[in-house]
């Protein structure tokens, strides 16, 4: 079997399709002479004439027609293979549903960690205040704040938030906040109710501080934004405020803390645990939760 370079075969294939050396040269971005030379080289290597040269173009000989059929199939298959190799494989998507504050303050800062653990997976995070209906919605895993009683679902505890008191350094610039009793002299920030402050002050044994004042911000994320802007003193989860505390944008005022009334759970349909990605993601969430739950604990 004669070994023939690809170049002459390609020149012949284009010339056979266009039946015109000038058109073939334009398609290949080479000169008319270059195409003519490569076709002649091929004819010499094969020992047969492939084209009849006509005044206005080319005509395939019987040998040329037979070879043209083969080269067309070969180059088509090659083009298809190149496309398959160069086209990225369809990536799988994993959808996690959670509430907005946890997404912004805990989950999104860990997206890079997820990407390193699952490099071939695209993560989609959707936020909602309602419980996901797994039978109707395209959600793989949900992260919930609640009692952990979710019938029909596989439930994995992640962490029990610890409520701490924080504020921007600017809030303390002109006034001292040395004891919890001093809170009565400062504006208080709330998420969607007064309950957080009530529970914290009760646990600290503090009376005489009217918690039913200040701004109700709607959710933890908005409340922390208000705290960062120096609008008052906030009660929040240590996990949610971790980045701001690390950066010094917020300061922890007291060592007193109280466990939140509810906890954070990851839930999914039990049958989905057979999926390695689902099981692996839940395990990843547990690892991240364990690491973050120990952040900013007061020294013993």
From TrEMBL:
PROSITE patterns registered for this protein in UniProt: HTH_LYSR (PS50931)
Signal sequence, start to end: none
Keyword list, A-Z: DNA-binding, Transcription, Transcription regulation
Domain HTH lysR-type: 9-61
GO MF assignments: DNA-binding transcription factor activity; sequence-specific DNA binding
Coiled coil (residue ranges): none
Alphabetical list of InterPro entries matching this protein: LysR-type_TF_proteobact-type (IPR058163), LysR_HTH_N (IPR000847), LysR_subst-bd (IPR005119), WH-like_DNA-bd_sf (IPR036388), WH_DNA-bd_sf (IPR036390)
GO biological process, one term: DNA-templated transcription
A Pfam family assignment: HTH_1
Superkingdom, taxonomy of origin: Bacteria
Sequence similarity: Belongs to the LysR transcriptional regulatory family.
Record's protein name: LysR family glycine cleavage system transcriptional activator
